[in-house]
Amino acid sequence: MEQGVIQNFKIHYRKRIVRKVTTALGNNQSMPKINLRESISEISKAWNYDVTDGTIRNSFAKAGFFVSNENSASTEDEGKIALEELNKMRI
């Protein structure tokens, strides 16, 4: 995960918060209060909509878990390859 997924997620989460603040201030509203519920909602949106499968796939490939070959392997095959590589590393 240190290969970029966490960093990518944090960037997208922070962009969402900054966008929320700038939109409110641009509409002459007071500074929005980001409570726990709203924070969790933005975390969920950042993870589900902004962090792509490609980002995760590339990060795992960069870490050496599997070689990303989008032309010949389907997503399911890539998952199997990743599991096989993990199992080899545990031996």
Automatic annotation (TrEMBL):
One Pfam family per UniProt: DDE_1
Organism: Araneus ventricosus (Orbweaver spider)
All residue ranges annotated as the DDE-1 domain in the record: 1-60
Lineage summary: Eukaryota, Metazoa, Ecdysozoa, Arthropoda, Chelicerata
Domain of life: Eukaryota
GO-annotated molecular function: nucleic acid binding
Protein's name according to its UniProt entry: DDE-1 domain-containing protein
InterPro entries in the record: DDE_SF_endonuclease_dom
